[in-house]
Amino acid sequence: MGLGFQEASGLARKFLRELEAPFVGRHEEALVVVLSILSGEHAVLIGEPGTAKSALIRRAADLISARFFKYLLTKYTEPSEVFGPLDIRALKEGRYVRLTRGKLPEAEIAFLDEVFNANSAMLNSLLSIMQERILYDGYTEIRVPLWSLMGASNRIPEEPELEALYDRFLYRVLVKPVDQDNWDRLLEAAWRIERGEIPRPEPIMTLDEVKEMYKMAMSVDVMTVKPQLIKLLVTLEEKGLHVTDRRKGKILKAIAAHAFLHGRREAEETDLMVLKYTVPKDPEDFEKISVILTEELKTRERIIRELMEIRRNIENAREAVNKLQHYDPRLTDYFRNLKMVKNRVTTLVKDVEDPEVVGLAEEIIEMVDLLIEEIMAKLNV
Q: Which residue, 276, 296, 316, sits at the end of a domain?
């Protein structure tokens, strides 16, 4: 590959940008696909039909020049449809041979639509392929080159027999319809696709390069966030979100991949946001864990949201102060509260290096100082 850590990380970010480029409102879905590929794991996209799930996976395979297999499962799907038919000529000679050309056993990236329609004849083979990268076929073992298997479904399985299959997907994301604010962009993008104006993408890297990225990601020091991760896992358990021992270990791979994607050799607290995609199991879990992570982690998004709310409160306070007469005793309360707000803003951005966040905080502190001066003038101090 010949790329250093930062160059490889930059290429991974380019992969993410190129993957989501034609789609509207699909950043999270694209991020999950990229993380699954960087960590050599599997992902399932859960949502109604017509939300670009298939197109997203197809594009990911094209961008890394990977052998691709796609199939829509039904409860009547035969193993031969996915794994290849038996060679009748070999069978007559007493040999058990499966013709796998163009089928899942030869794919590097695979996409199974309505994956939870898998019947009992399919399940064991899928599980061994996903877990061991081996297809146990009659008296033979076929080692497969599969790197990541992506599934899609319009439901979360409730059948006990599908629980093991669902658990094999480290990453899980709810794919919702594009929100109304983005319908304008959606229609424009959809029309470009319908007119054939978005060509099949040119590869930007190979699967061999992805495998080198995987090694780099696995070299990331994730123990730097071990105390915070344990604390989060305890909080999740207390709130009814159980994480199996196996999944706890797998989550570390997701944390490492996220850190690598952002050019970090050591994981940071913000990388724990991947729990949003690796912990949820039931439908209500997805929203629940988002709320918990927002409350527990000092993330960029949380800081910006709080800073924006503080700025709105200051603007409201300025309007109120302007209406007060000189020496009004309420001015003293505003003065005291603004001092506390200034301390809060300073604490929020302590150790934060993001220029946008720091700039917003400095802007707010300047607003506070100006309003304090106005209050002091009214108090004749």
A: 296
- State how far the alpha carbon of 258 is from the alpha carbons of 2, 34, 87, 275, 288, in Å: 22, 9, 44, 11, 21
Please name the residues in contact with 235: beta carbons below 8 A apart, sequence gap of 6 or more. Answer: 292, 296
Cβ–Cβ < 8 Å for 346, 360: no
In contact, 132 and 171? CB cutoff 8 Å: no
User: In terms of Cα–Cα distance, which of 254, 208, 200 is closest to 66?
Assistant: 208
8 Å CB contact between 326 and 346: no
Tens digit of each residue's pLDDT (9 = 90 or more) over 20-29: 989 988 989 9
Domain that holds residue 273: 220-296
How far, in Å, CA of 355 to CA of 97, rounded? 60
Please indicate, yes or no, whether residues 108 and 160 belong to a single structural domain of this protein: yes
Q: What is the pTM of this model?
A: 0.78
Q: What is the DSSP letter of 85?
A: -
Q: Does 269 lie in the same domain as 233?
A: yes
pLDDT per residue as tens digits for the range 128-164:
999 999 998 877 888 999 999 999 999 999 899 999 9
Continuous segment of H or E residues that includes residue 292: helix 283-296
Residue (of 84, 36, 40, 78) closest to 57 by Cα position:
36
- The answer to whether 354 and 304 have CB atoms below 8 angstroms apart is no
Distance CA 80, CA 281 (A): 31
